[in-house]
Amino acid sequence: MDYKAELLAMLGLPAEATDEQITAAKADMENKCKEHDAMMNRAVSAETKIKDLEKAALTVQVEKDLDEHKDVIENRDEVKAQLMANRDGTLKIIKSMRKPAAQAATALRNRDGQAPTGQEVIDAAKRTADQEAYVKEVRMKNRCKSHSEAWQLAATLNPELFKK
Known about the structure:
Blueprint: H1 3-11, H2 19-68, H3 76-85, H4 87-96, H5 118-142, H6 147-157, H7 159-162
Helix pairs in contact: 2-3, 3-4, 5-6
């Protein structure tokens, strides 16, 4: 194999090139490689700076979004993470949420419109706690996928506990 011919072809030199021409072409190629490496490093650095600037701009915009919609956001950190990952989609969801209505403080009333007695409140709380405990037990025993599925099954299995 004629390595000199291959080298001359790679350097773009004629077959009758001198050693000085080969050395000069080799040095020129090395310089071009160094320039290429330097340009690649500058490109990578520029891309990193652009990403950092875009992230900073997104962070500022996300903070504005969080402040604008603070009345419907309960967990700011989780919503912030979602906005950073998918701002457009998350904003659509946030904008579709209803703002909480101001609720006037009303006293608890029973069906007759009377304020319940202390014993009625205690009985209702105990009944609710018993129902929840039974639903939890049914859900675990029957491997129900949701609370509502377990509630329906529990109401079927023990209707007296769930009568109103």
